[in-house]
Amino acid sequence: MSVSPSPTDAATRAYAERLSLPWWLWLAGLAATGLLAVELWMGATGVRAWLPFVVLLPAAVAALTWLGRIRIAVTDGEFRVDDARLPAQFVAEVIALDADGRREVLGVGADPLAFVVQRPWISSAVQVVLDDPNDPTPFWVVSTRHPVALAEALLDARDASR
């Protein structure tokens, strides 16, 4: 026997994702930092022998971790992107974008009032069109690795809040 989900089940379904860096960006960042540290060392003795490595490598790890810190989630009837929060009741439409669609939305004719969280290492995104008369922001564009799943979760949250 199968049970169809009720509207309350849709409200409890959540989506969460972290926009972390891919492994190859970690490798490239640490390799570039190591090369810079070796250039600063250049065979010197004393403090110059170890200081570039002790300072630059942890700084690179911290910077790469910071770049991948953004979390997006659809929980408790709202869309969360890092610190920003959007109640699902103000979502009018959600469009899953591939690389070409994202380029078109963020290209030459982009709206300067749009809220954008874009990560260049993630090719897909969602465009969330808003229906809030008190907010001048026409839409949000948020990078995601799973645009269809995020769009479905947002639409489910919107339908549950109405």
Structural summary, described in words:
With 162 residues, the chain is of the alpha+beta class. The chain contains 5 helices and 8 strands. A 4-stranded antiparallel beta sheet has the order 1-2-3-4, covered by helices on one side. It has a 4-stranded mixed beta sheet with strand order 5-7-8-6. It is elongated. The two termini are 29 Å apart. Residues 1-12 have low confidence and may be disordered.
What are the main properties of this structure?
elongated; alpha+beta; 5 helices; four-stranded mixed sheet; 162 residues; four-stranded antiparallel sheet
Quick summary:
This protein has 162 residues and is of the alpha+beta class.
Helices and strands, with pairings:
Elements: H1 7-12, E1 15-18, H2 23-41, H3 47-67, E2 71-75, E3 78-81, E4 84-87, E5 91-97, H4 99-105, E6 115-117, E7 125-130, E8 139-143, H5 147-161
Parallel strand pairs: 6-8
Antiparallel strand pairs: 1-2, 2-3, 3-4, 5-7, 7-8
Instruction: Determine the number of helices (DSSP H or I, runs of at least 4 residues).
Output: 5
Helix content estimate: 40-55%
Low-confidence stretches: 1-12
SSE order, as H and E?
HEHHEEEEHEEEH
Q: What portion of residues belong to β-strands?
A: 15-25%
Task: Indicate the radius of gyration in whole angstroms.
Answer: 21 Å
Net shape: elongated
Query: Quick check: average pLDDT?
Result: 89
- The N- to C-terminal Cα distance equals 29 Å
Q: Would you report the number of β strands?
A: 8
Structural class: alpha+beta
How are the strands of the largest sheet arranged? Answer: 1-2-3-4
Q: Tell me the major beta sheet.
A: 4 strands, antiparallel
